[in-house]
Write a structure and sequence with these properties.
The structure holds two protein chains of two kinds. Chain A is mainly α. Chain A contains 24 helices and two strands. Chain A has one domain: Up-down Bundle (Sodium/glucose cotransporter).
């Protein structure tokens, strides 16, 4: 069966599976729809949370970025798992005890103010919308490859499918569908990784294989990779820091506290059966997330090695001395001829995400770091790197590069779509409930009918998809980079407000609001200065800050959320000291939130 | 023994501080700040600092959450504030 037909079949079969489960599980009541995981064993609930959490950024984009960033890519791995420790300890059990559905509801009640709730809605929208732009970028990559169309067409098709999925599906709350999605995406991620690890190291587990020896030699795989990339002028893989140690530190912190501040993740912990379950379900979720995250470094390093090997035949060979190896790497016949390029390159060229430009006119592909040209390259007459590979394609192209069977390639496409669609749908639901319920119903139009509330939610979803899709055509960064910005926005606004709401019972509404606005404000200014006002290309205003990128201590915009959070805490503290103290009854409420006993079933109403 | 709400909250904060210390040490410490120094040692074929950044810290995080959950449940029972 051809690859194309196989891909349609596997993607179609997985979609049929999700829809089938959704119909089968539909019997439940509406409250079951919201109380995701009530009565579901914690292990399955953990899987569902994993599917909700792992998006196109984790599945499609992350390993490709790590392949490029080497050691520095660890910031994604630590950042996106370490946040669960914070979530489990600092937020989940207390938010569960509080017993409300959404983040704006918590903020509104704890800070006794509709205005505070309104500010929380704004922060939530900013973070979620940015997050969806990242998903759209990923969906565009997946669809463009899977349907053999340009990347822009891929984004448009993705917009349509995400809309249908989110608006008509309502699949988000049905735990068993998400369990199925988790199974599809984890199989799709690990099967090719096992194949490749087996071929390159003889060890089926990528977690161990990455530390193992390159097959047929007594050299470690990482040592081999270090050697190859350094020969070609790239920085050493295992020690390459992301910009600076400080930047890496701040970036990791930003992703961690952003994890604990993202509405669609937090929402899951509002609705587990008990406070005790809130603690353990964070643990189970992390177990299932870690299966993918500990596989990713192997995928990244092996994909990087295979990519170099597929255009340079000397990469995988063993040479007695460094001189011999160096001579072979830059020998004319080692660079493959463009006409002999492997099929996977032809397929990705259609999408426009992989490009070849024959700079020295020899009809062969030279791929190296031309910003730090190695001596051998100059001597061999190389005139610049001729291959550009979009980092977001690495995971999807990986099984093709490694020449794995067609069914594996098809499965990876299905996994990428499952990851992107489940998360996009979750985020869109968070957006629609924030706008229709927390904003319109509770603030502007209290007597709105349920039907209108539902309609408002759907319109909000549609608008979000159009905006995110449009910005996804010219994304501010690679999928995982864009998602990192979303985490920064959540980190600088929602996380500190929730933290202070629980751990500082004297924090008042003035402090919380000023903190959120200041935190997200500085973060947005820093991000927009680099990436354009509301991510629109051409509206960057770095000039106002001296024109140099990363002007604040060399910290990149994607990492700025942690700084924003510091500003948030500081401003909130100062403002709360000079404004009226938090009322007595709120302080009592905070005390009661701190002990598990008396946790009630969740109810969605406001306490006003 | 003091079973007041204040004593319970103090015990909770102490536990959180201990877990956070480990959390910080493995990721920001071993994975970032001391990674270069640790790279002179190796574990399972990995340079140690690289291993903490791309493998080790994640295993520790998983263990930490379950240990925290267990210790918190014990605290809840000890202070008699657990759910019925």
């Amino acid at each position: 069966m051809s690859l194309q037909a196989m891909t349609y079949m596997v993607v179609g079969a997985t979609f049929a599976l999700y829809i089938g489960i959704a119909i089968w599980a539909r019997a439940g009541s509406t409250s079951e729809f919201y109380v995701a995981g009530g009565g579901v064993p914690p292990v399955l609930n953990g899987m569902a949370t994993g599917a909700d959490w792992m998006s196109a950024a984790s599945f499609i984009s992350m390993a490709g970025l790590i392949a490029n960033m080497g050691y520095g890519g660890g910031l994604f791995l630590m950042g996106w798992t370490g946040g669960y420790v914070l979530l489990a300890m600092l937020l989940a059990p207390y938010l569960r005890k509080f017993g409300k559905f959404t983040v704006p509801q918590f903020v509104g009640d704890r800070f006794y103010s509709k205005a505070a709730s309104c500010v929380a809605v704004m922060c939530l929208l900013a973070a979620s919308l940015t997050y969806i732009i990242g998903q759209m970028t990923g969906v565009g990559v997946a669809f463009s490859r899977f349907l053999g169309v340009s990347n822009s067409t891929g984004v448009f098709i993705g917009m349509g499918i995400v809309f249908m999925y989110a608006v008509f599906g309502g699949m988000k709350g049905i735990t068993y569908t998400q369990v199925a999605q988790y199974c599809v995406l984890i199989l799709a991620y690990t099967i090719p990784a096992i194949f490749i690890s087996m071929t390159l190291t003889g060890n089926p587990l990528p977690q161990l294989g990455l530390g193992g020896d390159f097959v047929g030699t007594d050299m470690s795989l990482l040592g081999k990779l270090d050697q190859v990339v350094m020969d070609l002028g790239f920085p050493q893989y295992t020690t390459m820091t992301r910009i600076s140690t400080l930047n890496m530190f701040v970036y990791t912190m930003s992703l961690m506290i952003g994890t604990a501040g993202l509405p669609h993740v937090i929402m899951r912990f509002f609705t587990v059966p008990s406070v005790k379950a809130a603690r353990s379900s964070a643990g189970w979720a992390l177990v299932f997330i870690a299966i993918l995250y500990t596989t990713a470094p192997g995928v990244a390093a092996m994909a990087r090695l295979n990519l170099h090997a597929s255009v340079n035949t000397a990469v995988k060979k063993d040479y007695a001395t460094d001189e011999l190896r160096n001579a072979a790497m830059f020998a004319t016949e080692s660079s493959i001829r463009y006409d002999d390029r492997p099929d996977w390159m032809k397929r990705w060229e259609v999408t426009g995400l992989l490009k070849f430009e024959d700079k020295n006119g020899d009809g062969r592909i030279q791929y190296y770091n031309d910003k730090n040209t190695p001596a051998g390259a100059t001597a061999a007459g190389w005139k610049g790197s001729e291959l550009s590979v979009n980092r977001d394609i690495m995971v999807l192209a990986n099984p093709e590069i490694a020449k794995l069977p067609n069914w594996v390639i098809a499965l990876v496409a299905a996994g990428g779509l499952a990851a992107a669609l489940s998360t996009a749908a979750g985020l869109l639901l968070a957006i629609s409930s924030a706008i229709s319920h927390d904003l319109f119903k509770n603030i502007f139009m209290p007597d709105m009918s349920e039907k209108n509330e539902l309609m408002t939610g759907k319109i909000a979803m549609a608008c979000s998809i159009v905006v995110a899709g449009y910005l996804g055509l010219n994304p501010p960064d690679f999928a995982a980079g864009t998602v990192a910005i979303a985490f920064g926005l959540a980190a600088s606004s929602i996380f500190p407000a929730l933290m202070m709401g629980i751990f500082n019972k004297k924090m008042n509404k003035e402090g919380a609001m000023a903190g959120m606005l200041a935190g997200i404000g500085v973060t947005m200014i820093y991000v927009f200065a680099h990436k354009g006002l509301f991510f629109i290309k051409g509206t960057e205003f770095l000039g106002l800050f001296g024109g140099k990128a990363n002007f604040f201590l060399g910290i990149e915009p994607n990492a700025f959320g942690a700084i924003g959070a510091l500003v948030n805490f500081a401003v909130a503290y100062v403002v709360s000291k000079i404004t009226p103290e938090c009322p007595e009854h709120i302080q009592h409420m905070v005390e009661s939130v701190r002990t598990p006993r008396g946790a009630k079933a969740v109810d969605g109403t406001h306490a006003h | 023994m003091d079973k007041s709400g204040e004593a319970y909250w103090k015990a909770v904060l102490t536990l959180i501080a201990q877990v956070l210390a480990v959390w910080f040490f493995v990721s920001f410490g071993c994975g970032i700040l001391f990674a270069d120094a640790l790279n002179s040692m190796s574990i399972g074929g990995y340079p140690l600092g690289f291993w903490f950044a791309q493998q080790g810290s994640m295993y520790v995080f998983v263990i930490l959450i379950f240990v925290y959950g267990k210790l918190m449940n014990n605290l809840d029972i000890k202070f008699d504030v657990h759910e019925e």
